[in-house]
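Give me structure tokens for this 146-residue protein.
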Amino acid sequence: MTPEVDPTKSPDAASTSDTTTDGAASPRICVTEKAAEYMKTKLMFKGQPGAALRIGVKGGGCNGLTYVTEIDEKPPRKRDLVYEFHGLKVLVDTRSVKYIDGAVVDYENTLMYQGLRFKNPLEESSCGCGETFSVADSVMKAATAK
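Here you go.
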């Protein structure tokens, strides 16, 4: 299945070759081509070219929530959303997507930082390190409601 591409997003945020395997009409997050190429190179270097990038959120840090990225060689879990961006398999658990819905994961290479960066529309504030964040109370209440 090929997701719809939002023409208002940057050209490298998604491409018509991106696919979703969770049955959703379009991905709940995006991974830019730069980020996908960075991760594919990293996976090759580590000898894990078939592994996926797992993206998530956990509690903790200065602002209450922390972005998590891991290399995962295991099969997707039942609660995972499974995507492919620019040839990179990406797994996002449904609990985490509530806090990062609509986020774009990009690659940054500066004097101060090299790695993946999240551009999260649900982020209300973030720590100076950019690794921890908070969301609006309404998002937090909706995400934790049972």
